[in-house]
Write a structure and sequence with these properties.
alpha/beta; about 290 residues; Spore Coat Polysaccharide Biosynthesis Protein SpsA, Chain A; globular; 7-stranded mixed beta sheet
Length: about 290
């Protein structure tokens, strides 16, 4: 049996206006993983959803409702060993970059800018803007970096754990972003989950799996080897035989100011993607981005 038959590519949204694009992210990812299942969970089945994608009504609108659905209800919708979660702004880029090593972990997603640092004296703090990276090599310091949930691979064991362990999800607007399901999984209840046998991917595997935004550890990391991506700046708009069109929420000038984003753009172009900028221009290579195509 193909490893892909163990995977359901699933997108969840409580916002119907995002359902079609979430369906495109599912379609793009599932076609790179032959024999995988495909499922969209949204209020209604959107017009134009690919025939091979099963639809299930669910997930009410709202920030908190989505977080709770992903933590406590998603497992009931998945009948395979793994769920590969995608969103309208996160999907797989390259079948060649898939690794069976991903399946060794219960949770894997792109490293994000936020991390929890636990000091030798027992205190802990959350560091933003990838400042947690500076703590990685310090003795007796534990770093739990957050792995993005918007494009993530999860086992049934991970998906069922919060309910089986009766873990209490925090209220909204927590100052450490612990009301975000991926932050909560990666940091707040990580110790409880690890005691339950949950395996979190190490940094080098998380980097190979996906990218959200570039950090210093990407400077020597081959972008072309990354399997997928997620970012609110990049949203799928249209699929083509290879790649497609994605819309950028930031201008090219703003992208140039973001650490490593030009390298991410180059990777996307190499994978056959075109970019639609906020002013409507289309680009398919770095040299063209300043004037469009």
């Amino acid at each position: 049996m193909s490893d892909f038959a163990k995977i359901t590519v699933v997108g969840v949204t409580g916002l119907q206006d995002r359902a079609f694009r979430t369906g495109l992210a599912i379609e793009q990812t599932a076609r790179l993983l032959p024999a995988s299942s495909a499922l969209l969970i949204s209020p209604e089945r959107p017009a134009g959803l690919a025939a091979g994608i099963r639809h299930q009504s669910g997930c009410t609108p709202g920030y908190a409702a989505y977080q709770r659905f992903m933590l406590f209800d998603l497992a009931d919708c998945i009948d395979t060993e793994f769920a590969l979660v995608v969103q309208h702004d996160g999907w797989a880029l390259s079948a060649e970059n898939w690794s069976t090593e991903f399946l060794q972990y219960d949770y894997i997603g792109a490293p994000v800018h936020l991390g929890q640092v636990k000091m030798p004296d027992g205190t802990s703090q959350y560091l933003r803007h990838f400042l947690w990276v500076e703590q990685l090599q310090k003795p007796d310091v534990t770093v739990n970096f957050v792995m993005n949930g918007g494009f993530s691979l999860r086992t049934q064991k991970l998906m069922r754990a919060p309910r089986e362990l009766s873990l209490q999800f925090p209220p909204p607007l927590n100052e450490n972003d612990e009301n975000l399901e991926d932050v909560w999984l990666s940091t707040t209840v990580r110790t409880d989950l690890e005691r339950h046998g949950i395996r979190f991917a190490p940094l080098h595997m998380a980097c190979q799996f996906s990218i959200e935004h570039a950090a210093v550890f990407h400077q020597k990391f081959p972008m072309k080897s990354i399997f997928g991506h997620h970012s609110r700046m990049r949203r799928v708009e249209e699929l083509m035989e290879r790649g497609g069109v994605l819309s950028y929420a930031a201008s090219f000038e703003d992208c140039k100011k973001l650490f490593g984003e030009i390298a991410v753009l180059a990777m996307l172009f190499d994978q056959g993607w075109m970019v639609r900028w906020p002013d409507g221009r289309l680009s398919n290579r770095i040299i063209a981005t300043a004037r469009g195509r």
